[in-house]
Fold this protein.
Amino acid sequence: MLKTALLTLLSLAIAIGGGGSSVWYALQAQSGVGAISIGQWTAFPEIGTQNADPYSKARVAREGVLALGKAEGLSFIAERDAAGDELQRQCDYRIEGGFPTARFWTLYAADQSLGVVDTGKPRLAALQSYQVLRQPDNSVVIAVGNRPAPGNWLLTGGFGRMYFVLTFYDTPIASSTGLSDVTLPRIVKAGCNA
Amino acid sequence: MRRLLHAILLGLLGAGIVHIVVLLLVPEFTERDAWSRLAMASDLYKMTRLDAEAGGAPVVKSVDPLFYAAACRFDLAEGMVRIKAPGSVPFWSVSVYGRNGHNFYSFNDHTATGSKLDTVVLTPAQMIDVRRELPEDLQGAIFVEAPIEEGIFVIRAFVPDDSWKPIVEQFLEQSSCELQDY
């Protein structure tokens, strides 16, 4: 009798614990259902729409996201560099390559909550396409780090995990057909302040 | 031993069911969605800044740091709502969300006449009424038909650099979100 009760209890514990924590885990992850990955960059084109999958819908509800509409833009998030290592705030990176068609784009270094990182300096840890210098072939090279760099410099600082958020505004790639042959810039680690 | 295995298997099956149920219930029962957060910050038909720049923590998370944003909540059951913002900024875009945070309409300044933000959100039934006789002052407005009652309207405006801050701030401050009598 006791054995049956214990086994029932075990079943219930596995069901409730496992079910609850697996939902929590799935909603924490940056990748997942509905994600489109291009290089190191991940986007959720369907997030915040009626067609979104249940995971995106739950994420929208739980985090209070008001996702960008299709006519507004599309956000990509990177959490790893080209070598597959997690992005760190104490490291320097180089973001280089071409950017897809858009009226303009913005790039910022984000912390875990996807807010801009607080460097404690007046300069914002963000760049936008009207202020960057371009190579002769129209590609862009951006130095990321806490020391000023020639050319385009994205300020970061501090310690811990970091994300890059790259958002294209008023862009044809936001309609899903445009996403098939888009290339996004590479993120290369240049060094770390250990 | 077989009964233990049986219990674990049953537990895993249950976990799958709980996973699906919890996932589908999260949007129904959350108190952290955009609507609830905005409700805590301000009333219906009141433009509220979403970014942290206006002081305090950001109301809605992950707004681009190079953007200012404002939002108002509306209820179409009370009548149609008109959103206007004078002045010109480098880029603005707007989105209409349902109460559940689902975006069902968005456009940007290239869509609007003369880049002026002047739009009316209304239900299809109200649209039929308005079509019958279009009031003079609604001629230039963009009509957004929304099959919802409660919703959120968000204006986002681009701040290319610090010198644009006062202008964009003013643009959002002067934006209005009010019930339109008809």
Remarks:
- Helices of chain B lie at 2-29, 34-41, 124-132, 165-173.
- Chain B has a mean pLDDT of 86.
